[in-house]
Predict the structure.
Amino acid sequence: MKGETFRHLLTIVVTLLLSAGVLLLPEPERAVKGGAGRVARARVLAVDNSDVALYGLLKCGSQHLKTQILSGPLKGKVFRANNEIRAQMELDKEFREGDIITVNMPEGPVPEDFVLTARDYSRSGWFWVLSGLFCLFLILFGSWVGVKSIVSFIFSFLVIWKAVIPAALAGWAPEAVIAGAAALLTFAIIFLVAGFTRKGLAAFCGAMAGVLTGLVLSALFTRLMKINGAVMPYSQPLFYAGYDFLDLQRLFAGALILGASGAVMDLAMDIASGIEEVARHNPQLSRRELIRSGMRMGRSVVGTMTTTLLLAYSGGFLTLLMMFRVEGHSPLTLLDNPLVASEAVKTLIGSFALVLTAPLTALIAGSIFAPRGPVTSCCSSSTGNSSCESSSRERPSSPESPSAEEP
C-alpha cells in the first residue's frame, strides 16, 4: 500500500513540475501595445441611464456608473466609469446598483477624475465555488484518480495557454503545433491516470491512431468543403490586432482535432480498461477472444459517443438552427451555411476518429493482455473434469500481480 501511494505521489509531483516548467515559458510579444492595462474588481454604487435609449427591441447608449474599487493598489477608491451599450445582445450588459464588475485601470497613477471603462460582470467568485465543489466530489469519488484528473486538467490548460496559443500566434504551422500538443496531452493524461501500465500503453496507442486519422481528415475536408476558418469566434478582431498572416482554415482544422481528442482519449481508455478487467477475471481467454470482447464494448460505446458529439455541437448553435427552422429551410440547405457546415464537419470527423479508435484499441489491448504461451480452453462438461489443469500450468501469472501491470 505504501509503494502504491508513493507511485501516485511521484506521478503527481512530476506532472506538477512539468506544469511549473510550462508556466515559466516566456510570454509572446503583444501586437496591441498597452492592451487593456490593469483589470480590477469594483462594486457599482450608483447607475445613471439617462443616455441609454431603446431602439425597437434593443438598447443603445452609455451607462454612467459610480464604482468603488475592490482590488489592487487603489482598493477603496471611488471612480466614475462608463459602460457602452451597442445594441449587441451577445456582448452588451446592463449593470445595476450593487453589481460586482471588472473595470480597466490604466498603468501608473490614476487621477481621481479619471473615467474608467467597465468591462463585464465579475464571475470569478462563483466560478471558484463551482470548481471547488467539482474538485471535492471528484476526489471523494475517484480518490487518487480524482487527484490525478485535476492535475492533468491543470497541465492541459497550461500547455494550451502557454505553448499552443503563442506558437500559433507566432505563425507556426497550426496543424503540426496542435497535433504535437494533442500527442503530449494524450500521453501525459493517460499515463498519469492509468500509470505506466499495459492498460495505459494500449489506451495511448489507440487514442493516437484516432487523433492522427482525425487530423488527416480535417486537413483534407476543410479544403474540399471550403470551410472558412473565420467561423471561429473573434477571428476578425484577431486579424485587426495585427495577425492577418494567420491561416484560419488550417487553424480551424487543428482546432477541430484538438476538440475531438478528448472524446477519443475517453473511448480508448474505456476499451483498454474493459479488456484489462476481462483478462483479470478470466486469464484463460485467448487473444482473439479478448479482441472480440473489446470490439463488442467498442460498438456499444461508439454508438452513444457519436450521438454525444452531435448533441454537444448542435447545442452550441441551437439558436442558429432555430432561425433556419423559422425561415423554412430544409435540413439539406443548412449544409450550405458556413456555420452549419463547420459544425457538421466537426461532428463527422470526430465521429470518424471515434469509430477508428475503437477497433484499433481493441486490437492493441487484446494483443497486450493476451496470455503468453499456449492456453487450453476450459474443459467441456462432457469430459467430467471440473478444472483445466493444463491451462493453469501453462498460463502466466495473473494480471493482478504488480509485475503484470508493467507495459
Observations:
- The two ends are 21 Å apart (CA to CA).
- The chain has two domains: 39-122, 171-377+389-394.
